[in-house]
Model the fold of this input.
Amino acid sequence: MLTSAVAGFSISIALIVAIGAQNAFVLRQGLRREHVVPVVLTCATSDALLITAGVAGFGSLVTGRPGLLAAIRWGGAAFLLCYAALAARRALRPGGLLPTERPPATLGATLLACATFTFLNPHVYLDTVLLLGGVAQQHPNRWVFGAGAALASVVWFTALGAGARRLAPLLARAGAWRVLEGAIAVVMAGLAVALLLG
Done:
């Protein structure tokens, strides 16, 4: 059982750590110190639900519906491009970049954005439902494997959200936030293009 749990944790953490839309969003929220705990809980719970679906064998349903995957891909790319444009606009705008200079977003708007980054991203389905779900089927203790994978998500998003506060002193100037927002814009646009070409 321990072997399955460690395998699930290891594979999941390797998939999650790669920079992506969800990670960039959690990092930004952590740096702004804005609704960090609800965002981390939303990300971890969403991943746990998707991993559970994969372990239960729902991956075969998704692969059998190419139209659904195409719709998710195009919708996700459109959302990522819009977010990239907003991040680029924030990077180019001279004021309102520092957390103290901008009014906080509402909890509802923040959680909606978080859910959108999660569920409109086809890579999330590929990683959790298809890949982790497929590997789980090869383990004698597939639900223990799934629990290990879900734990990796909790550990990663907690560390990312809480650890971002340590970067706050480095980002105490508007110029540093400009660089961060510019980097987020490039990442989001790159992910959108990858989705469209993939």
In short: Residues 136 and 142 are 5 Å apart (CA to CA). The chain has nine helices and no strands. The radius of gyration is 17 Å.
